[in-house]
Design brief:
- The complex is a heterodimer of chains A (117) and B (113).
- Chain A has 117 residues and is mainly beta.
- Chain A has strands spanning 2-7, 10-14, 19-27, 31-38, 44-50, 56-58, 64-68, 73-78, 87-95, 106-107, 111-116.
- Chain B contains no helices and eleven strands.
- Classes of the chains: A mainly beta (117), B mainly beta (113).
- The interface between A and B is medium-sized, with 26 and 25 residues.
């Protein structure tokens, strides 16, 4: 079984400040990990993914995340927040092996990011 | 191809009515997923197709829910005898076998009165 915990349902930062959104996962098999962003009344857009290659993953819009197996974490960061980053962010996990559950995503509850001018 | 499309975008229905949603995946993607998202929550997996075969169903998918993907292209999700608890955003996603990266559609927002 797999699960994701996102610490902090709301995060507020000032424009230009560091963004840090926390994600911890639980998985009985080696995982793939993802961060998605969702703007109001829209579907989810993939920001970045970890698929067993480099542990530091760079994504779109200046975001990056680091896979830390010892801490079972996959925190999302961005050095300097922009007003357009305000949205809801979801961390997700899926099994990385084959089988019928391959690709099935298990999401965290989401973190709403607010950016103040 | 501009991405995953879903129809309708919004559906308002009365309790007890049947509703059907359609998802058109990215054309070369053979995997198709349905998720449900309620307010303030992350999406929850409902079911998954590889080509036309339905390979996994969540226990969230009661016998009032049925999904099909008859020719391995578009998919439909039907809810029979809708209940107020079915009110949610229904999201569809697709991916290829080679890349475990799901592309999501804009969703269908269902409101059951």
């Amino acid at each position: 079984a797999q699960s994701v915990t996102q610490l902090g349902s709301h995060v507020s930062v000032s424009e230009g400040a560091l963004v840090l959104l926390r994600c911890n996962y639980s998985s009985s098999v080696p995982p793939y990990l993802f961060w998605y962003v969702q703007y109001p009344n829209q579907g989810l857009q993939l920001l970045l993914k970890y698929t067993s290659a480099a542990t530091l993953v760079k994504g779109i819009n200046g975001f990056e995340a680091e896979f830390k197996k010892s801490e079972t974490s996959f925190h999302l960061t961005k050095p300097s927040a922009h007003m357009s980053d305000a949205a809801e962010y979801f961390c997700a996990v899926s099994p990385n092996a084959g089988g019928t559950s391959y690709g099935k995503l298990t999401f965290g509850q989401g973190t709403i990011l607010t950016v103040h001018p | 191809d501009t991405g995953v499309s879903q129809d309708p975008r919004h559906k308002i229905t009365k309790r007890g009515q049947n509703v059907t949603f359609r998802c058109d995946p990215i054309s070369e993607h053979n995997r198709l997923y349905w998720y449900r998202q309620t307010l303030g929550q992350g999406p929850e997996f409902l079911t998954y197709f590889q080509n036309e075969a339905q390979l996994e169903k969540s226990r969230l998918l009661s016998d009032r829910f049925s999904a099909e993907r008859p020719k391995g292209s578009f998919s439909t999700l039907e809810i029979q005898r809708t209940e107020q608890g079915d009110s949610a955003m229904y999201l569809c996603a697709s991916s290829s076998d080679r890349y475990n990266e799901q592309f999501f559609g804009p969703g269908t927002r269902l409101t059951v009165l």
